[in-house]
Write a structure and sequence with these properties.
alpha+beta, 2 domains, 6-stranded antiparallel barrel
Length: 200
């Protein structure tokens, strides 16, 4: 885990399969398809991909209303309103690194604890989650309910490509991921082509 990166969110709901985290004030909200990491108490680091992002009222049942101001006017005229808004995201746990430093592309033995801190993964962490791309099987065969799996795969592959860089190494990583996906999609070439076309 890269402890030099500041936390971006705090876990507010957790299972071995997913976490829901609330974005900290002034932190940048992670993109759909971005990788995040959570270090748990025993030294294990969980890796999860952001599958849903939502902004709404802090108070359940209280809906935000239109105020007719842009963001800068709102900060200047009614800063208290921004205190009543929160952003949360749901991230699907797909891998973990054990206390020995070995990355396992499978569900972890135990979930993150409530209030554990969430950090964005740097490029090195994303690259460590490359081949053999076993986490893709979890995404394709056991998708999160209500998440458009193909769109999540597109976003995830874009992030992978960015992590490896635009050169030969990035192309090789995408080719390897494409081969893995082809097998998982039961040779549904039309679906695979649709996903890969949108990565570029």
């Amino acid at each position: 885990m890269n402890l030099e990166l500041p936390p971006i969110a705090e876990v507010i709901e957790s299972s071995t399969r997913h976490v829901v985290a609330e974005v900290l004030r002034e932190a940048e909200t992670p993109d759909f398809g971005a990788w995040v990491e959570i270090e748990v108490e025993d030294g294990t680091t969980l890796f999860a991909v952001v599958a849903h992002v939502e902004t709404g009222s802090v108070e359940p049942g209280r809906q935000a209303v239109a105020l007719g101001m842009d963001r800068s006017e709102l900060r200047r005229e009614m800063p208290q309103v921004l205190e009543l808004i929160r952003t949360t995201f749901r991230a699907q746990v797909l891998a973990y690194r054990d206390h020995r430093g070995t990355v396992q592309q499978t569900l972890p033995p135990r979930p993150a604890a409530l209030h554990d801190m969430v950090r964005a993964c740097d490029d090195a962490a994303v690259c460590s989650l490359g081949a053999p791309f076993d986490f893709l099987r979890t995404l394709v065969r056991h998708p999160e309910m209500g998440v458009p799996t193909d769109d999540l795969l597109v976003a995830l592959l874009r992030r992978l490509n960015l992590a490896y860089g635009a050169g030969d190494e990035g192309r090789r990583a995408l080719l390897a991921a494409g081969r893995s996906l082809s097998r998982l999609l039961d040779d549904d070439h039309e679906r695979l082509q649709s996903i890969l076309r949108r990565v570029a």
